[in-house]
Amino acid sequence: MPKSARTVPERGADPEADHLLGRACVWAILALTAYRIALLPFATIDLFVDEAQYWLWGQNLDWGYYSKPPLIGWVIRAFTELGGSDSAFWIRLPGPLLHCATGLLLWRAAREIVSPGVAGLVGLAYVTMPIIAIGTLLMSTDTVLLPFLAAALWCWLRLVRAPSLGVAALMGLCLGLGMMGKYAAMYFWICAAIGVVLIPGARIRWQDAALAFTVYLLVFAPNVLWNLQNGMTTVSHTGDNIGWIKEKSGITLHFDELGDFIGAQFLSMGPVLFGAWIWALFRKDKGWSGWWMVALSLPIFLLVSTQAILSKAYGNWALAAYPAALMLAVPALRAAAPRLLWIGLAINAALVVALPVVATQATTWHMGDNPQPVLRRFTGRANLSMQILDRAKAAGVGAVMVNERDLLADLFHTGRDAGIEIYAVPPNGHAPHYYAQHYPYPKDRAGPFLYVTMSGGNPCTGALPEPAAEWSSGPGAYRSATVTAYRLDERCWRP
């Protein structure tokens, strides 16, 4: 007999009211997504460094790139082709749509173990988390990964209830595509392996697990082959990010980084929801499904917390744990303290509603007498690119060589139709970023070019001439930087 994964409805709940709550949550998810998309064209935040880089990846479709697997580049390329435009709106449009899909998939996954109303609240809690609100404005690899993790979670719960080779193959496909979005998808298999050992009720048929893992490997295999053919570029970059792996002077513990990481989780998930997840970890009456959600979330937080102690960890590095964490926290809070759950959702929703409006005023809103915009980190990038391109045209050169990755990222996007060739400083050994790897200045190119830097450095064999220009870019991300430009030619490379 197949196992049943479904739980009984909430004690004392009105089934009709519960179904109405579930439907209301779904409509709220859809309405919030429409609101986000409606305001997205009016956002005045520039493309961030990573967003511009992902867009450039999509101009050359491949099975892998310098620092990430390829799916985000493919997705952005698909949307810009669909819209016939490389504007920020079309680059970012996948964000709200993919997060909406994740919320709806979590709603369906939660329906396997909780009542319709609680399942709806799980989906609503997801789309109203502060970190997800940011993810609907700034395109990231997490945005591409999370729908596939939510779908895989739903597939597993269905397999617990009823074995199916078709559902197993679908789960493998989702996890394979998730790995093509971000390598954090492998957390699912690590957590599942721990869970099936400790939680008998969560086990699925071994044939289903084997088929899912086989499909997963087949889908992900092209990226593995690409890495093997390209010097394990992405793996090497991931090791650089981890940091402590390459340390030779011994390991130093950074408990301040751990504090920063945990604090970021309260901000990312929302203080009530993250606190509820911690509280739910210690509840004894979780049932097998609750313990399964512990298995799919707690190991990720522990692994990333260890990384924080050994080196550093950004707040979003634990996002792969959030789907299961919500499916643990929301039902527990709904059962024990429903009013507190609504308070937590209201706090998050207030930020969610405000953030798209703030993004439309990124260049005009200031804090007190400070002349810098509140969202200064996300403004001023395109403006500096235009300044560089204008100075290149005024200097009568057809190419610009830039020292910094941040400048290169925006220059390639902002200057895509400017008629100016853009290059990185040729690397001396290992390429420090994607632009140096694929767009180094060709030393056999004849003619003048403009070398632009904010951090100094001399790419030439001999001494640099006097600067052709020095200036401050103005308000925004580069507010405190001095930009220096040199007019050079092929003699730069001669001894």
Provide key terms for this protein.
mainly alpha, five-stranded mixed sheet, 2 domains, 495 residues, globular
Query: What is the β-strand count?
Result: 5
Low-confidence region ranges: none
Lateral strand order in the biggest sheet: 2-1-3-5-4
Residue share in β-strands: under 5%
Q: Using the CA coordinates, give the radius of gyration.
A: 25 Å
Coarse shape: globular
Sequence-ordered SSE layout with sheet pairings:
Layout: H1 15-39, H2 49-58, H3 71-83, H4 88-92, H5 94-110, H6 116-127, H7 130-135, H8 141-161, H9 165-181, H10 186-198, H11 206-229, H12 233-242, H13 255-269, H14 271-281, H15 287-310, H16 322-336, H17 338-360, H18 381-394, E1 399-402, H19 405-414, E2 421-424, H20 434-438, E3 449-453, E4 469-472, E5 482-488
Parallel strand pairs: 1-2, 1-3
Antiparallel strand pairs: 3-5, 4-5
Helix pairs in contact: 1-5, 1-6, 1-17, 2-3, 2-19, 5-6, 5-8, 6-16, 8-9, 9-11, 10-15, 13-14, 13-15, 14-16, 15-16, 16-17, 18-19
